[in-house]
Structure formats: C-alpha cells, structure tokens
Amino acid sequence: AQPGFDTGGVYLVNAGFGADPQKAAALEQRFYHQLQSLPELRGVAIGGSPMMGTWTPPIYTGAASGRTLASYATAGYFATLGIPLVRGRDFTPLENQHGAPVAVISESTAKRLWPNEDPVGKRFKLDMNFDGKLSEFAVIGVVADVRFANLSRVDPAHVYLNRDATHLDWMLVKAAGDRAGAL
User: Fold this and answer.
1) Closest to 74 (Cα-Cα) out of 102, 115, 106
2) How confident is the model at residue 33 (pLDDT cuts 50, 70, 90)?
3) Nearest residue to 81 (alpha-carbon basis) of 16, 17, 170, 163
4) Is 97 exposed, middle or buried (0-12, 13-18, 19+ CB in 10 A)?
5) How far apart are CA 21 and CA 69, in angstroms?
C-alpha cells in the first residue's frame, strides 16, 4: 500500500539552537529562510515527520467529537512531502509567523466531521494539552489521506496545525535533482 507521501530526496534536519526558547526560535527561523534560498533545494518546511510521532487530542465540532491525530506544519509542507491538496489552500508564511489559529485537515477528517459538506471555513476545537481548555481553529484546506502514524492503515483523522515561529520541530528539506549536489 502506498503511504500517501513521498520521502524520496527528503532529509530531516534537526539542530540544537540553544536553551533559550526565543533565541532558539529566532535561529531556527534564520536557518529555515537561508535554506529556502538555496537553488539545490526544491522544498523546505518545518513540521511533523511521517512515522515519527503525532499526538491525539480530543476534537469537537459541536455536532461531533472524538480524537484525532495532530501534527504541525508550515507553508510548503505538503508540497515538500508530495501530499496533494484537494480543496482550499496551504498555510501562508505570514500565518506561520503569527501562529494564526488555522488548520489543514485530511479527507477522512472532513468526511467524519462534516459529511457531504464543504469543510473549508468550518471551525473545530481541540483540547491541546488534555486539560479541558479548548483552542479553536478554522479549516483552510483539505489534503489527501496518508499513512502518517502507521504504514498499516490510513490515518482515520488527522489535523495539521499551523506551526508558529516559537514551536521547534523537524525541518524537512527536499533536494532538487541530484541529491549529492544538494548535500
């Protein structure tokens, strides 16, 4: 079975940017922007990496509730991993910079929460820290289903949250053409 993403030519980059969270986030952003300017790279994004973990917060829409897989992503994340956008749009760099409360959801999530409805523009809430305090997000896009958490099954529900500039995560770098030249 196909996983729904393409890791060919994609490398994970993780670095220690220091113990001070604000300085670390600023250094990561500078490094991220420098990598984006390299012609040897076809894609650079920050976010969760397939097969390397998610979390499963409670999700609520008013009419439905349950659990969902969740991970973070920046603009260009889906293109870098070859995950097709099927409706709506991707995150923007400005949304990433300011931590806008927007999300991209999987097709299975859309069908489960809003059957026979356009999910773009709909809102849902997550219990991000499992403490009863709910955070609200607006759906801006829908992507194809993937096998992000387990290769044996398609994710039953997955929300990709806008990754703000203060949240450190994996950097995914996709080489353009010759991998050796990019490294």
Assistant:
1) 102
2) confident
3) 170
4) middle
5) 26
Check residue 164 and give left, alpha or beta (phi > 0: left; psi -120 to 50: alpha).
beta
Chain centroid, CA 73 distance in Å: 3
Whole-prediction pTM: 0.90
Lookup result for tokens 């650079």: 44
The top-scoring range by mean pLDDT among 15-19, 106-110, 146-150 is: 106-110
| Distance of alpha carbon 159 from alpha carbon 128, whole angstroms | 12
Q: What is the pLDDT of residues 121-175, one digit of tens each?
A: 999 999 998 999 999 999 999 999 999 888 889 999 999 999 876 766 788 999 9
Mean pLDDT estimate for the chain: 89
CA distance 183 to 181: 5
In Å, how far are 88, 89, 118, 183 from 52, measured between CA atoms?
Answer: 27, 25, 30, 23
